[in-house]
Each structure stands twice: as structure tokens, then as C-alpha cells.
Recover the amino acids of this structure.
């Protein structure tokens, strides 16, 4: 059975990523109302990513390392840990930093975003980067789950 | 809030995470040091990233915020791409 922490981690992270996609869409053609919605979305996105960080971190340190990692490393799919998990756990650390910056820029420039092209484009690019990077990480998570299932099946054979 | 300082702090912190990641794999002592922060090297890197981001922001806050441009963001995105690829390349080569 899938550990519920994985489910919570994945759902929170994906909600956070979609919140930043929302920010991107609002900033493509901003009005004062859209800027206010983007600010709200960025705060929610940041909060969801922060929660995903805490839950995922707890699962990684307390459960994955003890029960999942040894199985994967003992299987033919050990690259799933030694490459995919290693990259995922470290690149994930970029996301809260990028999310903080994006939310801060939205509040700093606020109504000025209607005129300030560089600040607006910066937010669009950063929100897009968070979305793409985040979903690459989500893909890695799916690959790790598949690696775990593969290791379990290989152990039963 | 100083946008230029925050963007630079983000870029340097992300590069620092990449350096700490690779460094901890190459040096057992450094990995042990990171582990001593929170009981696990990944927690150590997480704490390091938060502390570094805050301290670097304070350090860069002396820079004038008048000319925040797209170049600052492009530089940060470049840092994210290079740092991510460096981590990927390292683990592919050392798997």
C-alpha cells in the first residue's frame, strides 16, 4: 500500500505548481484584479510547496531511507535511487527559493506591474520555471515509485 | 524589499546547494558536517539553503535596487539550469 505521506506530498506539491501556473496566466495580461489574484495564488503556491517540502522531507528521512531505498538499491533498478532520487531530492531545494522570490516580486511591484515590463516578465519566467522544474521533479517521483514496485516484484519472484 | 538583492541571493544559494550536493558526495567529512546539523545530510542542506538565502540577501541588500532588469532574472534562470545539470551529470557519472 502507498504510504499516505507520499500522497500528501505529491498533492501539495502539484497544487503549489498549479498555483504558479495560475500566477503565470494572470501576469500575461495583467490588470489590478489579476495582480491581486496572482499575489494570492503565489502565497498559496508558496505555502503548498513549503508543506510538500516538510512532508516529503519527513518521509524521505524517516521512511524512504529505511524501507524503500535498501530494496531499490538491492534490485536491478538501483539507478532509480542513485540517479533519479539523488537528483530529485536536491533539485527540489531550488523550488522554495524560487517561490519566495516570485511571491516577493509580486508584492514589491504590485500595481507597478502594469507598467514595469521587466518585473512582469521576470515573474512570468520564474512562475514558468517553477512549473516546468516542479513537474520534472514530479515525473522523477513517478519513476521512483515504479522503481520501488519493480524492486518489490523482483523480490517476490 | 530589494529585488536585485533577492534575485542574486537566490542565484548564489541555488549554486551553493549544487556545490554542497556534489561536495558532500566527494568529501565524507563534509557530508558528516551536514548530517550533524539535523541528523541527515539532506536536512543539513535544507537548513543551509534557508540560512544562506537569508544571509546573502542581507549581504546583497547594499546593492541599489533602482535598475532591476530582466537580465537579473535571466542570470538566475541560467544558474538554475547549470546547477540542475551539474547535479544530474554528477550522479549519472557516479552511479
Amino acid at each position: 500500500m502507498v504510504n499516505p505521506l507520499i500522497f500528501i506530498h505529491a498533492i501539495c506539491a502539484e497544487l503549489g505548481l498549479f498555483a504558479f501556473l495560475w500566477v503565470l496566466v494572470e501576469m500575461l495580461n495583467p490588470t489590478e484584479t489579476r495582480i491581486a489574484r496572482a499575489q494570492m495564488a503565489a502565497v498559496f503556491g508558496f505555502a503548498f510547496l513549503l508543506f510538500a517540502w516538510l512532508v516529503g522531507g519527513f518521509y524521505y528521512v524517516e521512511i524512504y531511507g529505511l524501507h524503500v531505498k535498501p530494496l531499490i538499491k538491492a534490485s536491478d533498478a538501483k539507478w532509480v535511487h542513485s540517479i533519479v532520487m539523488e537528483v530529485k531530492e536536491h533539485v527540489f531545494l531550488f523550488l522554495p527559493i524560487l517561490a519566495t522570490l516570485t511571491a516577493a516580486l509580486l508584492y514589491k511591484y504590485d500595481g507597478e506591474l502594469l507598467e514595469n515590463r521587466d518585473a512582469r516578465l521576470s515573474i512570468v519566467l520564474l512562475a514558468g520555471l517553477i512549473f516546468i522544474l516542479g513537474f520534472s521533479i514530479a515525473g522523477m517521483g513517478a519513476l521512483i515509485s515504479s522503481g520501488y514496485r519493480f524492486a518489490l516484484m523482483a523480490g517476490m519472484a | 524589499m530589494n529585488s536585485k538583492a533577492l534575485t542574486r541571493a537566490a542565484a548564489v544559494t541555488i549554486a551553493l546547494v549544487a556545490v554542497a550536493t556534489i561536495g558532500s558526495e566527494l568529501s565524507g567529512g563534509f557530508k558528516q558536517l551536514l548530517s550533524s546539523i539535523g541528523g541527515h545530510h539532506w536536512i543539513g542542506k535544507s537548513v543551509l539553503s534557508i540560512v544562506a538565502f537569508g544571509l546573502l540577501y542581507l549581504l546583497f541588500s547594499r546593492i541599489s535596487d533602482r535598475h532591476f532588469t530582466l537580465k537579473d532574472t535571466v542570470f538566475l534562470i541560467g544558474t538554475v539550469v547549470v546547477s540542475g545539470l551539474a547535479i544530474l551529470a554528477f550522479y549519472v557519472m557516479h552511479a
Summary: Residues 17 and 54 of chain A are 16 Å apart (CA to CA). Chain A has a mean pLDDT of 95.
